Fold MerR family transcriptional regulator.
Amino acid sequence: MADNRLYSIATMAKILDMPESTLHYWKNRFDDVLPSFGTGRGKRYRAEAVAIFRDIGALLAQGLSAGDVRSELARRYPVNVGSGEAKGPAAPQTMTVGGGTGGGVDAQTMLAMASAIGAEIARTLAEQLGRGLSGGPAALPETTAAAIQGELAEARAENAALADKMRVLESELVRLRKDRRELENHLLGKIKALGEERGNG
């Protein structure tokens, strides 16, 4: 039986254990493939949108561009058009976003809005990345900096442990060489003594 529940972005964020701001950003960029009803603050998403949001995150994590993600989502999922049924090639002129019986936004307006939002987001990200790179490790988010510090501490501890093991191995090798020399001298002495005994006998 189909799941007919509708979810707000806040509820979706809890289900996916992700920040609401991330989902708002994704819904603004990929709204045309997200099955939804209503507009503005009253917009709700169908249950299948959970899988689509997960796929968006996975595809972006693979390093795909927004255009490539959009193409892949369009291939995997039907476009959320009017009543939810995908239309043929002429659809872009009449496609509406938001479901229901009207009051939607035509595709060209939506693309223009998405393009403007995308440009603004790109500008903001470029600024943030610029600050992060020029500021060095101190400019990293606390969680990332803490994770890096933790990994660095672990690597140092492993390095120290390996150095201790190397010192033990080196001293053991020196001891073995010394023992070998002593054994060789002892055996040579025995062989020499046996040779002398035979010579005298």
Q: What stands out?
A: Residues 140-201 form one domain. Strands lie at 6-7, 36-37, 44-46, 96-97, 105-106. Residues 81-104 have pLDDT under 50 and may be disordered. Residues 193 and 199 are 10 Å apart (CA to CA).
